Amino acid sequence: MSRVEISSPFSVDLEAAVNHLLNFPDSMPTYMYPSRAAHGTKENQGASTIPVDILDSAKDYTFYLDVPGLSKSDIQVIVEDENTLVIRSNGKRKREDGEEEGCKYVRLERKAPQKMLRKFRLPENANVGAITAKCENGVLTVVVEKLPPPSKPKTVAVNVS
């Protein structure tokens, strides 16, 4: 039995359509590993992926991640393999204990943060030697400066005799 392909105006690349509708730049997917690919490794077992906003400005790339309940000492930001930004946390938050003996929780709804791991492939113009990170009010902000653009090669006119 032969397979027949039917061409349809709805068979457009869904990712491209969503990126176009949401005005994402074409280069945005190069910053991120596919989130599903990271789940299969032993290193990532049990780790949650936290949503991220990435801002591409003229001077730098800025990553914003919500990390409620985590302090700056709980978060590790490193660069692996010369161009991979790695953000991880063990995700441990201490519960507030009652000051009086015999106190107990009646309800526990706030989930303690789980292990977090995110990896981002940085573009060639990222200056991995100039990365800063700060954790304030439950938001981790990582700024990766851009390298200056390469200078234009000089064109020299040579007279032909």
Strand and helix order: HEEEEEEE
Helix content: under 10%
**Structural class based on helices, strands and sheet pairing:** mainly beta
Strand order of the largest sheet: 1-2-7-6
**Proportion in β-strands:** 25-35%
Assembly context of the chains:
single chain
Low-confidence stretches: 32-40
- What's the number of extended β-strand segments? 7
Helix count?
A: 1
**Average residue-wise pLDDT:** 75
Strand count, sense and closure of the main sheet? 4 strands, antiparallel
Write the layout of secondary structure elements.
Layout: H1 14-21, E1 52-56, E2 60-66, E3 75-80, E4 84-89, E5 116-121, E6 126-136, E7 139-146
Antiparallel strand pairs: 1-2, 2-7, 3-4, 4-5, 6-7
Summary?
Helices cover 5% and strands 30% of the residues. It is mainly beta and 161 residues long.
Structure description:
Helices cover 5% and strands 30% of the residues. The protein contains one helix and seven strands. It has one helix at residues 14-21; strands at 52-56, 60-66, 75-80, 84-89, 116-121, 126-136, 139-146. Strand 1 and strand 2 (60-66) form a beta hairpin. The longest helix is centred in the first third of the chain and has 8 residues, at 14-21. The relative contact order is 0.20.
Throw out a few tags for this protein.
single chain; 161 residues; mainly beta; four-stranded antiparallel β-sheet; 7 strands; 5% helix; elongated
